[in-house]
Write a structure and sequence with these properties.
elongated, mainly alpha, 175 residues
């Protein structure tokens, strides 16, 4: 009776230990799959839907001296291709860029609607920086942060176009 009890215990231990190897493999596969799901690619970024306003040719001409605007536009194009280097850099460097961005804005565009869009861009950039530099932020939150930057920049372009359009109509004198 003692021998059958020992054989039963051994059989039970062997059966349980065989199951542990399969669980470990499954856990590794789940971890590997979740790491792939967390990675944000250019294709993922392309699938983000928002209204993208481009600058009018007149606005493009007016913005030639605003070098920081062009730098931000270039970095946003890199972001669309999956390059996060500008946005997940040191927060002090990003804040310094934002400070220069606001300071170098041409006087023509220092209106309330445009300045408020600049504040929104600043918030979206700093928020995206936090999302990209922290490990415990979900992939969906990171994608939302990217979308917020795209929307904020697009709305800035829209306001710049509208401002120049209003100026053009104000310059027209009735006959």
């Amino acid at each position: 009776m003692k021998i059958s009890f020992v054989v039963f215990i051994l059989f039970g231990v062997i059966m349980l230990s065989c199951g542990n190897d399969k669980t470990a493999t499954t856990e590794e596969e789940v971890t590997e799959n979740s790491n792939q799901e967390k990675k944000i690619t250019a294709k993922t970024i392309e699938s983000i839907s928002y209204k993208d306003y481009a600058l009018s040719p007149e606005a493009d001409e007016e913005l030639v001296p605003w070098a920081d605007y062009h730098e931000l536009a270039k970095q946003i194009e890199f972001l669309k291709k999956g390059d996060f280097s500008f946005f997940n850099n040191d927060v002090e460097a990003l804040q310094e860029f934002i400070k220069g961005f606001k300071a170098s804005m041409p006087n023509t565009f220092r209106t309330n609607p445009i300045q408020s869009r600049n504040v929104i861009i600043e918030t979206a950039l700093l928020k995206l920086n936090e999302y990209l530099t922290l490990d415990n932020i979900s992939r969906s939150d990171k994608l939302q942060g990217i979308k917020d930057v795209f929307v904020a920049f697009s709305n800035l372009n829209y306001q710049i176009n509208k401002k120049l359009e209003r100026d053009m109509y104000n310059d027209i004198q009735p006959e």
